[in-house]
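[step 3/7] fold_predict: job queued, chain A
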Amino acid sequence: MIDAIDRAIINLLQEGFPVVEHPFAEAGAQLGLASDALIERIGELLASGVATRFGPMYNADRLGGAFCLCAMAVPAERFDEVAATVNAMPEVAHNYERNHALNMWFVLATETEDGIADAVKAIEDATALPVLEFPKLEEYFIGFRVAA
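[step 4/7] structure written:
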């Protein structure tokens, strides 16, 4: 269970993190917390599973890399096995189960354009299942935030 301070941390840090010499001190000051207390609370949010990630979001294609939304039709009896294989790939950023014929959706992020094809081939070789690629045609920024 999270308290009002944890909620304030989650809400504030979704808006950005200060890029300064002492970012935790600055972010903590906005919350009325010492930097050590903020670091400890972020660690607790991660350890408890309330937060699953704390870190920057990089736009891979602007850094010379690539990303692609992918989908697979995975037999129900193999779903957990295939998910473990896919999730073990360092190029896989997210993986979601959907109630659809294409029941596994994930994002690949690679250092190069060719890396996408290499990762898709590796997944297909490891699972013996085809991977469908849905490359980005146009980018939209929706500013997704989840109020805690």
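[step 5/7] annotate
The chain has two domains: 4-48, 60-135.
The mean pLDDT is 91.
exit 0
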